């Protein structure tokens, strides 16, 4: 069974003056369907210990929290630093990295992309236009449309990254690294009810084919 480490969102609880780590309950169900073992990473613990003590097969950077460069908060900044360290570790150790929504954005920013605000991309759906140069072209072509829950999109993409898919208005919806085992998607596969088999197969293929 694949062991996949998973990042969490950070939530400031004003009533108790504490910062909480959180993960949508749907992620557990999604990993059950994928037949992967999720390993949830706490922020105040050296994540390297997980990699040193067991065979980790992949990294998932989940959604929630804007990038601090787009909508600043201490929680977003802390998460940015943590996840960029994870990206660097994954690259150095050849561990596949999958980014979901914010996860795709942190990957994009890591490699030097920049962003702009975008309207009408929250709680809507988009048809995908697939780049035939994508290594995931065959899988992406089977995904007819996807959900959307984001207020920012990539404006200028790093030359190290390839646009895997856009919507039909040109908004970037998926990316991949031209060299490393890194893929990002702006849609939330965990929010589909029921889960999309085609989206599950894309995730399985990404981690199984590395």
Order of helices and strands: EEEHEHEHEHEEHEEEEEH
CATH architecture designation? 3-Layer(aba) Sandwich
Return the CATH class: Alpha Beta
Kindly name the structural category.
alpha/beta
Shape, principal axes of CA atoms: globular
What's the CATH topology label?
Answer: Rossmann fold
Quantity of strands, as a count: 13
Low-confidence stretches: none
Number of spatially distinct domains: 1
| Full CATH superfamily name | Class I glutamine amidotransferase (GATase) domain
**Largest beta sheet, briefly?**
9 strands, mixed
Strand order of the largest sheet: 4-1-5-6-13-12-11-8-9
Helix content: 25-40%
Query: Which band does the percent of strand residues land in?
Result: 25-35%
Specify the number of helices.
6
**Using only CA atoms, what is the Rg?**
16 Å
Report the mean per-residue pLDDT as an integer.
Answer: 96
What distance lies between the first and last C-alpha atoms, to the nearest angstrom?
15 Å
Task: Describe, in plain words, how this protein is organized in 3D.
There is one protein chain. With 210 residues, the chain is α/β, with parallel strands linked by helices. The protein has one domain (2-208): Rossmann fold, CATH 3.40.50.880. The protein contains 6 helices and 13 strands. It has helices at residues 26-34, 48-53, 74-92, 102-110, 137-140, 197-208, and strands at 2-6, 9-13, 18-22, 36-40, 58-61, 97-100, 114-117, 122-130, 145-149, 152-156, 161-167, 172-177, 182-185. The protein has a 9-stranded mixed beta sheet, with helices on both faces. Strands 2-3 form a two-stranded antiparallel sheet. Strands 7-10 form a two-stranded antiparallel sheet. A hairpin with a 4-residue loop joins strand 11 and strand 12. The chain is globular.
């Amino acid at each position: 069974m694949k062991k996949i480490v998973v990042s969490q969102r950070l939530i400031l609880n004003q009533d108790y003056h504490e910062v909480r780590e959180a993960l949508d309950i749907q992620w557990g169900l999604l990993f059950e369907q994928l037949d992967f073992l999720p390993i949830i990473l706490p922020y105040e613990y050296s994540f390297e210990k997980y990699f040193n003590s067991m065979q980790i097969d992949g990294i998932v950077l989940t959604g929630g929290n804007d990038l601090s460069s787009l909508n600043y908060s201490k929680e977003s900044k802390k998460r940015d630093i943590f996840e960029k360290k994870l990206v660097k570790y994954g690259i150095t150790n050849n561990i596949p990295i999958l980014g979901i929504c914010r996860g795709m954005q942190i990957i994009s920013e890591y490699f030097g992309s920049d962003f702009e605000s975008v309207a009408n991309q929250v709680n809507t759906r988009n048809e995908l236009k697939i780049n035939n140069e994508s290594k995931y072209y065959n899988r992406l072509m089977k995904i007819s449309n996807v959900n959307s829950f984001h207020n920012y999109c990539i404006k200028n993409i790093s030359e190290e990254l390839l646009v895997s898919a856009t919507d039909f208005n040109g908004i970037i919806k998926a990316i991949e690294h031209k060299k490393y085992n890194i893929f990002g998607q702006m849609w939330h596969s965990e929010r589909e009810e029921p889960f999309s088999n085609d989206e599950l197969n894309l995730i399985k293929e990404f981690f199984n084919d590395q």
